[in-house]
Amino acid sequence: MFRTKRSGLVRRLWRSRAPVEGDGEADRGTHGSGGCCMGKATKVAKSNAGSEAELKALTHSILKKIKEKQLEVLLQAVESKGGARSPCLLLPSKVDAKVGQQSYSLPMLLYKVFRWPDLRHSSELKRLSCCESYGKINPELVCCNPHHMSRLCELESPPPPYSRYPMDYLKPPDSPDSGPSSSDTGGMTYSAPVGPSDSLALQESGDRAHWCVVAYWEEKTRVGRLYSVQEPSLDIFYDLPQGNGFCLGQLCSDNKSQLVQMVRAKIGYGIQLTREPDGVWVYNRSCYPIFIKSATLDNPDSRTLLVHKVFPGFSIKAFDYDKAGNLQRPNDHEFTQQPRTGFTVQISFVKGWGQCYTRQFISSCPCWLEVIFNTR
Asked: How much is the average pLDDT of 128-136?
């Protein structure tokens, strides 16, 4: 039987759809046991044969109406799981599709089929700043590239009692092996030691107004030099098919720990750090959870900090400019600032820390980042 290129692309796309629970192929990093404070990651039961057939027929009929070049763009994004840079997929925003009793817009249907089967409403989504549709309201054509979107990390409110990280507990122990004091205590001081090459990098970037610097740590040891950031968006990754940014895989590390090596290999596509008008967002591009601690993720009047678990495909506003202004209070141990450094956000790959976990301090985590914001 003669098969067109278009039908071949459609079949490949359907085979690359997002798995649901029961497929046996579900991304093991997408869901998992609850952390201290996490983005919602609802498991979806495998659909019955009738609804699966209906969804397949509907998806095929819609995809066959899309131009071949656009199908190739969609296939590139889906098969690379966002690792390859793919252009926007601009399609009519007002085309509706119906599955059973539920109606979905064309973008929502593609997001459900290729990223998040449990997606219920567009309010759960955040468009990435790399997308042409970013910041536009109700355009006639909207980008339907599933990997130009992320899920919003919804924080538990109020958080469970066990997730609280009391300040008294955060005081560093009187021992020489306590590790970097501000990292262990959650304090906002600049804990990454600055060497001659770091100072030169900061001086060189001073004229270009860097908005943050990034330090990479393996347990209690910083690896590589400080990475100064001037561009509005930065990819931090271990292995990315296409991309520029802070490649952790190119850093020379003497750490022979099997756990560190295992976690390092799981960083994969890593995270995307983006400076936006309302603050700094972190998008988890990897296949495993990341864990974040930031003062602006908590109540301004709180004397405790939370460690937030962010699942793959989710975004979280890690640093809020408005809240940061309210936190700049004199004589406040938690939010003390040094001349150049501003506030610090800590991000651990794969392994969490705090009272919910066996690791009490981030310096016990195998692979983690310290993002120091320039608030001048």
From this structure: 85
Structure confidence by residue, pLDDT tens digits, 84-120: 888 999 988 777 777 666 777 889 999 999 999 999 8
Residue type, 374: N
CATH architecture of structural domain 5-13+51-152: Alpha-Beta Complex (3.90)
Who has greater pLDDT, 304 or 129?
Answer: 129
d(CA 184, CA 178): 7
The CATH code for residues 212-373 is 2.60.200.10
Residues 297 and 306: their CA atoms lie apart, in Å, by 8
Cα dihedral across residues 38, 39, 40, 46: positive or negative: negative
| Residue 128 binned pLDDT confidence (cut-offs 50, 70, 90) | very high
3-state secondary structure 151-194: EECCCCCCCCHHHCEECHHHCCCCCCCCCCHHHHHCCCCCCCCC
Determine the Cα–Cα distance for residues 316 and 319; give it in Å rounded to an integer. 9
- In single-letter form, the type of residue at position 162 comes to Y
- What is the pTM for the complete model shown? 0.81
Nearest to 126 by CA among 313, 358, 319: 313
Above 60 in pLDDT, residue 31?
no
What residues does each domain of the chain span? 5-13+51-152, 212-373
